[in-house]
Amino acid sequence: MKSTTTTSSTAPLWATLYSRFSSAPIELRSFLIFSTTMTLFQLLVTYQSGFKTIKEAIIPITGWLMAQGYISTLFFIFALVFSAGSAGQRNRFRLAVVALLSLNVFHGVQGIPFYDDNDYGNPYLIISKWRPVWTIVLPSFWIVLLMTKRVTAFCKAQK
Fold first, then answer.
1. Residue 135's closest CA among 72, 61, 36?
2. Which bin fits 126, alpha (ψ -120 to 50), beta or left (φ > 0)?
3. How far is residue 81's CA from residue 21's CA, in Å, rounded to a whole number?
């Protein structure tokens, strides 16, 4: 008896991923690239000893974990951009990213009394007066972009 199984011709995985990435609004694509880049850079400067001077230079501005607010959003932003979930799922993924970024802003606001720029001779103890730009302004910027009409329409669209 002959087998009559047929294979369906589907697009390769990379083509599907590229199609979903390119169909996402520029705000989502930008945040996905930014958060991924910051996470990879954080891992590089943390675990490669050759980057110690760079790490010591940016710690006063970014804090010990510069990608803290972005590492936690990676799952949700990837799921939002690349999943074929329902509109409700995509909106929940977006709100999860916004909630995590809001926690980053809250953490930055809590640190305001300590932004004194005192030099203790140890770069790991210095807190720059520019840290609010990294901990409050930048996450707030991403929150605003993730709540735009274009992103909302993308989240509500049926795939």
1. 61
2. beta
3. 6
